[in-house]
Amino acid sequence: MLEKKKIPAHRRFGLGLLQILLVLTAFFLVRRCVLLIDGNRGIPEATLESSYRMGFEAGKRQAETGLFAEEPPVTAELLKLRYREGFKKGYDAAGEVPP
Fold it and tell me: Per residue in 11-53, pLDDT tens?
């Protein structure tokens, strides 16, 4: 007859701990996604364009002078993304030689 072997206590403890860690990781991942989507909703196009222009000017200024510009304190991830995108384009545009 087949005997049902009991799992050792240290393995049961490890499996329980693993389950808790997986649930917490999934919870925080979903929470972050929801906050990103909710935080970026309703941002006007003019604000996005303004953030891009500020980044472009900061990148251009840094490329020309070599001084580091601090990123403005923004909580919306989409505004940070537009600022950084503008910064990169401005930094690259400053190094180009006009035709």
Answer: 999 999 999 999 999 999 999 988 888 877 888 889 889 999 9
- CA gyration radius for the chain? 25
In terms of Cα–Cα distance, which of 84, 46, 80 is closest to 62?
Answer: 84
- φ/ψ of 47, rounded to 5, equals -65, -40
pTM score of the predicted model = 0.61
